[in-house]
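Reviewer 2 asked us to include a model.

Predict the structure of this chain.
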Amino acid sequence: MVTRLTDVLMDCLAQQDSWHVYLLRHWNDIMGELHTQVCLERISGETLILGVHDVHWMQELFCLAQELITHINNRLGHNYVKNVRFVLSSSRHNPQKINKRAAQQRSVTIATPTTVNEKKLTERQHKALGEITDPQLKDLLRQLMVRGSS
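Predicted model (structure tokens):
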């Protein structure tokens, strides 16, 4: 019988009750659609080391680091994370290959809740989003921020 190492590690970690385990197990859910661009490389004390697959995404996420910390801590239920560091990740675990039709469907899906809940964003969040040039990143982060403030 062959067992994946990640399954064994998760079973061992499940016996521990810590925010580290929760973060590892729920990373994709916490980050939403951004999990395809950002992976959790390492946890070092109160600092998360996040792997990013593209320098453009790294720059944009760096500008929104405080909002990411706030969102992650909200999901953890406590202010465990104090800092994030971004590193260029050498492997891409989920390549983004989106055809034109899927991109149009995604735009429709994102646009509807964003305009309804936009009033929940702070002035700082609006300003930060205004500085982002990549429309896909802007929509994903706005969605993340709205979800975090709900």
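Residues 121 and 145 are 7 Å apart (CA to CA). Residues 5-149 form one domain. We have added this to the supplementary material.
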